[in-house]
Amino acid sequence: MASEPGSSSSELRTPVFNGENYEFWSIRLKTILKSHGLWDLVENGFDASDPTKEKGKEEGSKAAKEEKSVTAETLMKDARALGLIQGAVSDQIFPRIVNEETSKGAWDILKQEFRGDKQVRSVKLQGLRREFEYTRMKDSESFSVYVAKLFDLINQMKSYGEELLLIACKLVPWDERAGEGAAIAMKN
């Protein structure tokens, strides 16, 4: 019995993107698309033009029929990928991609808007660095809560391209109570 993605416990559950945590959502959806063999199509797109017109093949030839079959199969795979992407966004986000007819087009729109270009990512990373450097453990919070807060910031920084070595160097002088354990944990 075939099931829709996300409806069976054996299937990967498609995360719904609501405009927050784009980086984490995109990693999860990318994994799902890869598991269905669709990621390459989303990332690189495809040429939907009629292959027989460009190569001068006769309309009824065996080669032309095979190429049309491959094109039809690619269109179906792209529609499946587009359906996964459309199903993985909230009703508030969906209007942004409603007019896109390819999975690559929809993915690129979301990527541009929510990940931003290099300059936008740089500004976001700068803000995260500042927040990371000024984060201090409050007297009222436990060490585990403080470390969880730091790891959340670290994961966000990594998703925007920060190198782990730079993060670890900032952590080393961080707090005597952490000792070498935190530096070792950061290595992993």
UniProtKB/TrEMBL annotation:
Domain of life, source organism: Eukaryota
Biased composition (Basic and acidic residues): 50-69
Region of interest: Disordered: 49-69
Protein name: DUF4219 domain-containing protein
Organism of this sequence: Prunus dulcis (Almond)
